[in-house]
Amino acid sequence: MSMDASRHCRYRTGVKGRKDGKLAVLAYRDELTGLPGEGLLADRLAQSLALATREGKAVAVLELGLDDFERIDRTLGHRAADRLLQETSRRLGACLRRADTVARRGGQGFIIVMPQVAMRQDIAIVARKILDAIAMPIDVQGREIHASGSIGIALSTEHGETAEDLLDKAAQALTQARQAGRNRYAFHVEAADPGGVDRLQLEGALRRALERRELVLHYQPRVDLRSGRVVAAEALLRWQRDDRLVAPGDFIALAEETGLIVAIGEWALAEACRQQREWLDGGLGIVTVGVNVSQQQLRQHEATRSLPEVCQRHLAAAGLDSRWLELELTESMVMESPAQTIALLQTLHAAGTKLAIDDFGTGYSSLAYLTQLPVEYLKIDRSFVNEVCCDPNSAAVARAIIGLAHSLQLTVIAEGVETEAQMHFLRKLGCDEMQGFLFSRPLPAAQFAALLAEGRRVAFGDRAVAETLLLVDDEIAILNSLKRLLHREGYRILTTTDPMEGLQMLASNEVQVIISDQRMPRMSGTEFLSRVKSIHPQTIRMVLSGYADLQSVTDAVNHGAIWRFLTKPWDGDDLRKQIREGFREHVLRHGDRELTP
Ligand code: C2E
Ligand code: MG
Ligand code: MG
After folding, report:
1. Which residue out of 289, 292, 326 has the highest number of ligand 1 atoms within 8 Å of its CB and is therefore the one to mutate?
2. Secondary structure of 341-369 in HEC code, one letter for each residue
3. Bridge partner residues of 237 (DSSP)
4. What does the pLDDT look like over 19-38, one tens digit per residue?
5. pLDDT (tens digit, 9 = 90+) per residue, 167-205?
6. CA nearest ligand 1 atom 35, residue
7. Ligand 3 geometric centre to CA of 358 (Å)
8. Residue 463 counted as domain residue
């Protein structure tokens, strides 16, 4: 038996050879959690189905999978994994009604049977409640672990009448939920028939779209994070189909499969050049436009249709210098056949066209090749930017990409910037440019031109002013009395009752000293300060707690998350002194450069 298979079996509900009469019970109960096993589940599901059919109601089958189970089992060990399963089963019990059944299935799965449900909405509410319950931290041997789950849902009235059907469909829906991201639920959806009528119709319509001039480009501004000015735009394809504007996500894949992407991609290059000429002639001035290219465009080798040739032809037709055109390609396009791609990119580069690696961080790049690529820009993928203020891993990835890019003399662009906090934080990390809904969505050409003509820009404001203190406590009364206590100290004081909001504030503001309560409902003080430590390591962090909960305090101190531990109720003079020392410590460690504007 291979390692994996034995590991899997460890978490199977099974009948062990016992002589003490427990055999029958075990076949029906899971030893670890005491929940029904697959045997009992099959019985209950069959009964519920029979009853529901008689009464014209639906039975819902939900399969819950723990997203990180394998990783937790591997890194923290079996005891931690067992504890996670036990705690999950306890929390599940607390979310459900008596009539519902929860059972174990497979290594880390749980099945929930809800008999007699009337509406999908009721199931959705329960599914969300379960996911929220599972996402609460779990204490395992004194350390907090954060798990999350995904849920797939099948209904007897829509997805199948037999127990096997429903279990199968719920498992497929679980896969769909996981593909959409973690911590989600999904109802089963029949996969579209890839060779079906819809697809043929779409293909035909897409072929005609080019002839009928139904394709358009929208332009999304790129903003320089030092000057706040628009320095470039990305051209993004849209399909004006009847009165709907279809996004590329809905047709690019089909265009690639059918080979239509070569013609569509060439059209986009030609249109971007033509549009720039029009703006120039209209006296608008010019910005560089980035156009996305597809793998197949790189693979066109005939002299007249190769990408460098196509670019030159359309630049020449519009009378444009090649430096006004940028091409965006992804890591995987380069890595598919690196040697040929590098040669091609060198030809483009030699002709003056700038190149960007799009969605950087999501594919796999060989760093050795990266140093050989004649690219100018790395675009940090939206998925990291999205979480950059609150997830230490995303912040670490963004910081690493920026460091890597700068040491290779490349410019870094953050994609998908939606909030001020993200913008300020990325700017602090040294990111060069941003693009995202915060400044502007992709716009039709005329609106983009208006935005440029207006000279719209971002004012960053001067945030690095006074000594700034952040106070986090779920009790507003405590925040108020701390503010009164510190009133005369001259600090700029930020307060919040919610640690997640605290993370947003830290992203947008220069903060030197942080004081956090320990027991807060959404996140403990030590968890909050550990995240702060990873994302903003230069801060001085203190806990102010009414409970000297030894385990979490020692953990936090040992992980370097906190500098001092202070207790409630406090002595006013002492607390003021500690805070002053905190600011002094910050200057000692980092100099006072951050305090001077
Ligand atoms: P991409 O090149 O990574 O483009 C960025 C996508 O992020 C765009 O989606 C844009 O609308 C979206 N976006 C920008 N800012 C934000 C934000 O703040 N929040 C969120 N949630 N989204 C934001 P869009 O226009 O749907 O394009 C999707 C993808 O389709 C593009 O991803 C690109 O890979 C592809 N694509 C677009 N135009 C072309 C084209 O002309 N040729 C080819 N081959 N692919 C294209
Ligand atoms: Mg792009
Ligand atoms: Mg992108």
Report:
1. 292
2. HHHHHHHHHHCCCEEEEEEECCCCCCHHH
3. 217
4. 444 444 445 778 888 898 88
5. 999 999 998 888 766 788 888 887 654 445 567 788 889
6. 248
7. 5
8. no
